User: Fold this.
Amino acid sequence: MPIEPPVVSPATIADAYAALAGGTPDAPVRPIAGGTDLMVTLAGDLGDPPARIVDLWGLEALRGIVVDGTALSLGALTTFTEIRHSALCREHLPVLVEAAASIGAAQIQNRGTLGGNIANASPAGDTLPVLLAVDARFVLGSVRGEREVPAKAFWTGYRRTAMAPDELVLKIVIPLLQDRRASFRKVGTRRAQSISKVVMAVAWRSDAIDGSGPWHDVRVALGSVAPTPIRASRTEAVLEGAAPTADVADAAADALAGELVPIDDVRSTAGYRRLAAARILHRCIREAGGW
Amino acid sequence: MTTRTDDPGALVILPGTVVPGRARPPVPLRREGPSKLTGVALYTDDIVVPGAWYGSTIRSTDAHAILDGIDLDPSFDWTTVVVVTASDIPGENVVSSIRSDQPILVPMGGEIRHHAEPLALLAAPDRGTLREARRRVRVRTTPLPGVFDPEASEHTFASYAIETGDAEAAMAGADLIFEGEYRVGHQEQLYIENNAMIAEPTAGGGVTVTGSLQCPYYLHEALKRGLGLGDQGARVIQAETGGGFGGKEEFPSVIGLHAALLARKAQRPVRMIYDRHEDIAATTKRHPAIVRHRTAVTREGVLVAQDIEVIMDGGAYCTLTPVVLSRGALHSGGPYRCPNVRIRARATRTNTPPNGAFRGFGAPQVEFAAETHLNRIAERLGISPLDIRRRNLLVPGDATPTGQVLRESVAAEEVLERAAEASEFVRLRARAEAERRRRADDGTSSSGPFRTGRERTASGIGIALGWHGAGFTGSGEVKLASVASVELTADGRIVVLTASTEMGQGTKTIFPQLVGEALGVSDRDVEIAPQDTAIVPDSGPTVASRTSMVVGGLVIRAAGRLREAVEREMGAPFAESYRAFARDHGALRVDQRFEPYPGGTPFDDETYTGDAYPAFSWAACVASVRVDLDTGEVQVDDVVAADDIGRVIHPILAEGQVEGGTLQAIGYATIEEIKLRDGRYLNDRLATYIIPTAMDAPRISAILVEAPFDGVPHGAKGVGELPMDVGAPAVVAAIADATGAWITDLPASPERILAALAAMPDVAGPRPGMSPPEDAS
Assistant:
């Protein structure tokens, strides 16, 4: 017996801002993009429904993928299917393409958006570790104007973000670095339509052509192991300036297992998450080092 | 296409063994296929009933408590809402089943025995009012401590002992004894269509219930008892049914009674349609089980003695538990010859939702244990899993532990050899063993829990052999005394009347095949009467893989008698004369009642001796897997399934049963698991109860083997449950072949596999079926 809140479909971003600004704590207004999470919540009668829904789907200004100077810029309504099919993403950020391909199945990828993944703030959002690992910045907008928040400062608690209730994600900006390499791995519950038990993105800079040289600006980001997507800073410190050797991989895997504090939940156990995270990081370093 | 029209028991199709990819003889399309494909088929929720109200169930949030009261918020307008509590039940407050222990609704002051137990019912003219009314109901309870461990329970639903020879004495003198414990958890049937019923009051205080169900006469009996109605007062009609797998065997009695009670009080039709969350949270599951084996063998791997203990968790009410346990006990040794066997089986009560029928009905649990145990014995003895089976499998003339001598229709050897050959088991196993040795010898294996080895994946292959007693256990069919009918109507139509339901498996397609062949007419000239208790006789429930064999046999015999009567009167072949017969003489209906199959030793329920089943079906399964050694994730790549089903009636439908049953078994083996806390299912949604997707499905090659059963004219033994018995042990054996780790708990989840590979038991999480307290980490 799902409740169906009224839906408004603004034609412009300004109209969307105005609609969102009309929300109050008692009568919250929620934006909907692809709806792949919100619709499940409504249909499953999970939690209080919003008083009104603002449908962003018609806002063409929030679509499009461009390379703008030294950054890749994606509109918030960019779907996972569009990311998978984007020549620019494949060339400049294949790790994001990999993450997009791991989400749900074709229907979910057709509807689900990058901005929705970010704003929905699930600790299991599969693109979020990638965005953390490549130092993405999110452009937010509201009736008060636009501002930029780095990914690292965006997710503030379980399903909480740095956004005000009336703000929208407009754009995702990812700096492009010639010597950056990145790796992605998702451990889910099955091969499709799967929520992550552990999801990890690793990015680093290395000038060695064969990838065997020392790593710099190392980012190790994970999902589904904490209340928010996180960076594993102690593990990053172990890897910073080090070459991907067996000893370094061992030390990094130990460091990661030591710093993660995951929980038991319906999808997996804390012990499994810690163990699998350490092993997939070990594998990532092994593959980069070619040993 | 071959036909044998000179043989009264012949079928239209005699395909021999169907080889995948080989050209097939033409077979009829599924009867209800076009209406399902075009969306014309009406499932329960599609049926428009003008003026019907919406029904809903108020359920307990305690696993064990006393129901102190149900309060209705006085500030709410209750005038357009109907509320039903236990005091509104006109008949017995009992869901009719084997025992009378389950109330339709918990009475005031009564004992709540499981989470999500029905306490009260509401109906309202629209969903909005119903939703608001639900919020205005308050349930008051006094919580009681719950029992969640079936071994700690003091209440036993059923127990059986089977003994042959002297297992203890044989153990004492044996070469080698192996012990093992195996555990399996709940599994959800996950039919596509949720449980759903629409009840309409009829003149004279009766009720008609239309819904998604397997067994119209089970619900008919439940309505009569719960509503105090006579045979005519209660009427049950099956709507198009989107899958059952046992989940719509006994549970429809609960939801059907609820809908009927609301309709009776509201004096208008009431729709009771579960959503998926309610369906998973509140309806029956496969019984969790603990199985312990102690087995004596010679050094050559010949079985000397088996001592087996089976403990099943029945949940809070009895439902069909005694029969599930009985089948479990009878199959627990596996399809092997063993002179000294002791089997002790019991099922106990816990404060978890009741468990019930599910494809396999007690056999998948125990056959996983038996096969995994035998595979481990073979490994310890250095004998191939194929050879240890060759040395022990049942052959004609052997006896089962109940003393049933297998005289015919024994195909354990044939299915084993066929599956092994088609899968190239010997070659692939040697390759996996060489790979495993290489990984161990050259130092590339993982050197600690947080380390990877050089190779990320490992391949393995595993084999399992199984058996499945065809039809009801023991004296079940004799007690049931089913009736099926074939009628030549006054207007010259041929109609099959049975209560056997179509739920996607093909009843409506194969009965016209069988009857058409027996009458010498086309299957297209044979109609199926609707599954409506006002029209069709009680031909028993659509369960236990009995439809093709038992009811199929009855309709063939009925058709044979009809043919004889018409031909005797008309002096011409039935096909040429039946229309004239109908015109001249009017309708002729033949009712065929079940008669015990000839020969054999009747089963004795007291001593558990004699013929437990008229025949057994036999299955072998070979599974090939790849295991991700970093994460324990398993991909089942390929399955070869050889299934002896007596006679193949419709090869496409039969292969479909093997493919579907195999995939359901792979889910059971690898990912499907209900997790509990304090007696509550934690993952009671499709987002959290995980089953295989198309991406997780292997290539499945079905080999249909035919060792006919002579007790029925067409030789068929049933196929529905058989593939479910062997998939899981084959997959677990393949995982062991790939990794060296034997997973003894199902599912063999990545957590359990990684716990074994890294020697970190905590990684595995709780044992299957266990329900730790909420505050446990």
In short: Chain B touches chain A at residues 54, 56, 127-128, 130-131, 277, 446, 448-452, 454, 456, 630-633, 635, 671, 675, 682-683, 685, 687-688, 690, 692-696, 750-751, 754-755, 758, 760, 762-765, 777 (CB under 8 Å). Residues 482-593 of chain B form a domain with the Aldehyde Oxidoreductase; domain 4 fold (CATH 3.30.365.10). The radius of gyration of chain B is 27 Å.
